[in-house]
Amino acid sequence: MDARIARALTTLEHIVLGKPGQLRLALACLLARGHLLIEDVPGVGKTTLAHALAQVLGLAWQRVQFTSDLLPADILGVPVFDRSTQQFHFRKGPVFTQLLLADEVNRASPRTQSALLEAMEERQVSSDVTTYRLPEPFFVVATQNPHEQLGTYPLPESQLDRFLMCIELGYPEPIHERELLRSGERREYLPQIAPAMDAGAVLDLQRAVRGVYVSEPLLDYVQALIARSRSHPDIVLGLSPRAGQGLVRAAQAWATLGGREAVLPEDVQAVFLAVATHRLTRRSDDTAPDDRLARELLEAVAVPV
Amino acid sequence: MTPRTLFTTTLPRAQNHPALAWVTAAFGGGVLLHADRLPFWCVLVVLTLIAWRLAGELQWLPTPARSLRALLTVTLVFGVVGSFRTLNGLAAGTALLAVMGAAKLLEARTRRDYLIVIGTALFLLLAACLDRQALLRVPLYGAQVWLSCTALALAANADAPAFGARRALSLAGRTLLLALPLAVALFLFFPRIAGGFWALPPGGAALTGLSDEMSPGSIAELTENDAPAFRTWFLGATPPPEERYWRGPVLNDFDGYTWRQSRASFTLQTPLEYLGPGYRYRIALEPHSHPWWFALEMVRGAPDARAQFQFDYQLSSAPVAETVTYEAVSYPRTRAAGTLSVLGRRVATRLPPGRNPRARAFAERLRASSISDAVFVQAVLGHFRTGGFEYTLTPPRTDFDFVDDFLFTTRRGFCGHYASAFVALMRAGGVPARVVTGYLGAEWNPVGRYFIVRQSDAHAWAEVWLEGRGWTRIDPTAVVSPERLSRGILDLLPDAVSAPARLVHALPWLATLRFRWDAANTWWQQHVVGFDLRSQLALLGVLGFARADLQQLVAVLAAVTLGWLAWILWETRRTARVPRRDALARAWLGCCAALAPIAARRAHEGPLAYAGRIARARPGLGAELHDLAAAYARLRFGRDADEAAIRDFVRRAARFRRTRRFQTGRS
């Protein structure tokens, strides 16, 4: 494993206790140039995770609390008239950062949501005739509380598809809970920690991820998974081609985390639940999407030998 | 895939996969085999449920809720019980299977559901085989078994990409061909123990052919019917046409219009003395549901224990519900070796009082002028010959005093009329006489080299008791129409028989075709359907078992079956040894097979995951196995694996397998 990645993971695990799997997924998501959606109840450390990621990776970060009266300009920026130069001048919004924490993204109006999601996809912001590129790397960590219904606008499938991964943090184990209770606010540790890398190193690693070898048998396997999701009788919509691409990229990132030069079926399986679960809707939609369907798909498709 | 998920996997929707269509077709085919025997409502229910399932698949209709399905099931069970008053027996069981299978199809989602529906279809096929075994249905059964196996293959391989209907058909076909030798072995050697559950009495076979009573014209109805009554093989000499009288029911009771079998027949049989040469023959009697057998006149006792030789020399049996085959010996010339008992004489001279007065007076007058019974017989026959009588199949209707009306007014009739009138006259003249019904003639099938006796050959004649000779056959029809003896009805009265029979008569090639078909059918009935324990033991005798018995049969069956299974196993192992996989995969799968005693590799498990699972179970194996799995993963999924590296891995894998085996042997 790359020493920088190892150091980053160790540091992160020191801040966010007892969630090594989620931390690895979050890091893999970032290295795969994807955006991350964290679905969970308040107070389990979503913000701390995002903050820690930014700090450890040496990235600039901004946080936007989404509310129902938030406007697109509040995120993207707004043209203001400069008296001294007699010209309009674009004042960049909080989206112009390397890691954006979009808290409770489902509270904003669909218009604001789609403005953000467009920026995420295009990695640029247009105002009048000028296009402003977002900084590199650019990484959105959005959070939402799935159990809140009143005054929220749940993200539609097309928007969910833009998040490479969706993870849940969950409550800590008793041992870690005890540690949390004893030591108090974890965020206080943040200023103390030294970054494990910087933006240049992140871009470097993102390029390395794209170079991880993907063999023909592995593509067969990914295609079989996708085909199975599309023919499954209980699934409304199977995985999209974008989801397939994301799956391969996420698996490449996971292989990088594991220090491998080629993607194995295990890498695909490791990221599959995080990549696929939020994109699969059960036909008889009586419950919130759970990972049972994705697990069923994994069990139904044989690994190429 | 673990066994649990193997069965609970939800199969793809019909739009994406042919499995549902084929399973539905297989089930529909199974029901279709019974369609003409099932109650109409059952067929309707099956069709409705199939349509519902398909509509649900196209999302035109919602799939019924669990409670509705439960209600449906209970309703259908009660429906079947209401229809049949039982759930026992083939007919009720088949109906239950059909409607329950359709209900299962309605809710079928997972592989297990589909397998149950296919199983139901196969059970329906089995029921059809128990029910009817006609040669004509054999291709149907074959097609149904192939269809079901194709559906089975599709349901089993629903996850496999590119496993379509064509491949399923070919796989099912090849599997069935492989099973064929086993089926033949089971057919030949599986002991046919009489009274097994498969020997179910076929319910409600139609009553056909001669009945136990005869009214004027009743036999004429049979001439339209050219269905075979029985087939016969002569073992040795063949009797000339005028001796081909096949005796059936003997009628003793007369009410002036209709002859009936004697209900109370406790009369003693007059023993017979058999003269001259006899004929040995075998008869395969078609089912006719009546309790009697036919035999050439005059049979020497009951052919076997299934029949009794009655006082009137008739062979009585249990109702003939399926084809029976028996061998008999008959002698055309016989003589009574005793006298007619008093009761026998009374039974054979009884006439209804007050009926047919003119005929009685006529007979008494004629008897008075004859010096003996034999002369009286000749006198009555002479009257038939010269009295202006005509042989026709379309006689006019007669009065209730049938004999008077026929003898003195209409004078036109068929064999039944003549036999009936003749016996009535004999009895009026005090001569013991009775009506015998049966068949006259036989058609030679040159293809199968046997005779066919058809319902249209039905005939009635008389027997009179003459002192010194005993019961003597007199055929008054032969006096009126001598050609009836040597030629069939068809030649004699072409208009009287059915149109198809006439067509066959007119076109020789059609007749040949019919003979061929009849020969094939007969062969099928005799040698396949009628292949019983006796034939099996005879076969063992041919195979060289000196004293064949049931145990030897079972032993041969076991040997043949196991031999065939062993051959298939060996053959698959041999072909599996050169699979289409490359050396790398073979080497890795070999390691997995060696590790299977610890934990079997799951199909959806990658090499590292499997190695990790094994290492948790056997920490001692961990490091070596992990290296091996990582090497395999690198070669399989990594960049440019060269030949040397693969060869090296194959050697490592072989070494690992050897040591692994060594370790198992030690522990």
Sketch the topology of chain A as an H/E string, one letter per element: HHEHEHEEEHEEEHEHHHHHH
Low-confidence stretches of chain B: 196-205
Biggest sheet: strand arrangement of chain A: 2-5-8-1-9
According to CATH, the fold-level topology of the largest domain in chain A is: Rossmann fold
Rounded to the nearest angstrom, the distance between the terminal CA atoms of chain B is 29 Å
CATH top-level class of the largest domain in chain A? Alpha Beta
Oligomer: heterodimer
Shape of chain A: globular
Largest interface: A-B, 28 and 30 residues
Number of helices, where a helix is a run of at least 4 consecutive DSSP H or I residues of chain B: 24
Unreliable spans of chain A: none
CATH homologous superfamily of the largest domain in chain A, by name? P-loop containing nucleotide triphosphate hydrolases
Spatial order of the strands forming the largest sheet of chain B: 12-7-2-18-17
The proportion of strand residues of chain A reads 15-25%
Number of helices of chain A: 12
Distance between the termini of chain A: 26 Å
CATH architecture descriptor of the largest domain in chain A:
3-Layer(aba) Sandwich
Average the pLDDT over all residues of chain A and give the rounded result: 84
Query: How many E-type strands of chain A?
Result: 9
Would you give an account of this structure?
The complex is a heterodimer of chains A (305) and B (667). Chain A is an alpha/beta fold. Chain A folds into two domains: 200 residues, Rossmann fold (3-Layer(aba) Sandwich); 89 residues, Magnesium chelatase subunit I, C-Terminal domain (Helicase, Ruva Protein, domain 3). Helices cover 44% and strands 15% of the residues of chain A. Chain A contains twelve helices and nine strands. In chain A, β6 and β7 form a beta hairpin. The longest helix of chain A has 17 residues. The two termini of chain A are 26 Å apart. Chain B is of the alpha+beta class and 667 residues long. A five-stranded antiparallel beta sheet of chain B has the order 12-7-2-18-17. Chain B has a five-stranded antiparallel beta sheet with strand order 9-3-16-19-20. Chain B has a three-stranded antiparallel beta sheet with strand order 1-5-4. In chain B, a hairpin with a 4-residue loop joins β4 and β5. Chain B starts with a helix and ends with a helix. Chains A and B meet through α9, α11 and α12 of A and α21, α22 and α23 of B.
